[in-house]
Amino acid sequence: xxxxxxxxxxxxxxxxxxxxxxxxxxxxxxxxxxxxxxxxxxxxxxxxxxxxxxxxxxxxxxxxxxxxxxxxxxxxxxx
Length: 79
Description:
This protein is mainly α. It has one domain. It has helices at residues 2-29, 36-44, 47-60. It is elongated, with a radius of gyration of 16 Å. Keywords: Membrane, Transmembrane, Transmembrane helix. The chain crosses the membrane at residues 7-24.
């Protein structure tokens, strides 16, 4: 039983690292702010990380419309 729990923990940590890396790659070095996977992952991040991600995207793409999750209520300006 102990071995099963250990393997499960390693798998969960591995998945979390892979998802976190994919999200960070979207925020820090994506060619476009409209990457569907990146937008979805950003939407699942906790509030402070999502806010940081949106701020980073805004710095990188100042003239672009904000992606879903980073828009103000009007949908055309950054939150």
